[in-house]
Specification:
single chain; alpha/beta; Rossmann fold; 42% helix; two-stranded parallel ribbon; 5 strands; three-stranded parallel beta sheet
């Protein structure tokens, strides 16, 4: 049986921290569904369609990932509902720092209460990427800083176009 994992997030924009988590997950799971949240709880710089395109370009054009092992989708439902749709009982979450843990712990507990057959697996990005956040990447590019160490070429292009 194929093991699918759901990797939900905003990916506004995708960073090398996200990409580290994806690389590590590909070693363990047959398919990763990158699920881009389109909820209206946050203010996004890019709309859901733009984020789906940006992630697709970053993974498949810039980094040449295997399209058969990754699917990029947007969603507005509960993550547990998405797990059911894609026949997965695994939710992937990335951890950068201790400060992430409390929120992620609560989120994992809530998902477990919603569906007790779902497990949350935490993966850490490599040390050099643990400080990267989408928020900081947006702030640095907005102030004309260099973000080459934080995200892919096509993502940088999309960010520069947004902040023209």
């Amino acid at each position: 049986m194929k093991r699918n994992a759901i990797y939900p997030g905003t990916f506004d924009p995708i960073t090398y921290g996200h990409i580290d988590v994806i690389k590590k997950a590909l070693k363990v799971f047959d398919k990763i569904i990158i699920a881009i949240s389109d909820g209206n709880i946050k203010d996004y710089l890019f709309n859901a369609n733009e984020r789906v395109e940006m992630v697709n370009r970053a993974l498949f054009y810039d980094l040449k990932f295997n399209r058969n092992k990754i699917k990029v989708v947007s969603f507005t439902s509960l993550t547990t509902s998405l797990c059911k749709k894609y026949k997965s009982n695994i939710i992937l979450r990335g951890l950068r720092a201790v400060s992430d843990f409390e929120y992620e712990f609560q989120l994992a507990g809530m998902n477990r209460k919603l569906n007790n057959s779902i497990e949350t697996i935490f993966l850490m990005s490599d040390v050099e990427n643990q400080i990267i956040s989408s928020k900081f990447v947006k702030e640095v590019i907005q102030l004309n800083g260099d973000i080459k160490k934080f995200t892919t070429k096509s993502t940088i292009k999309s960010l520069k176009e947004k902040f023209k």
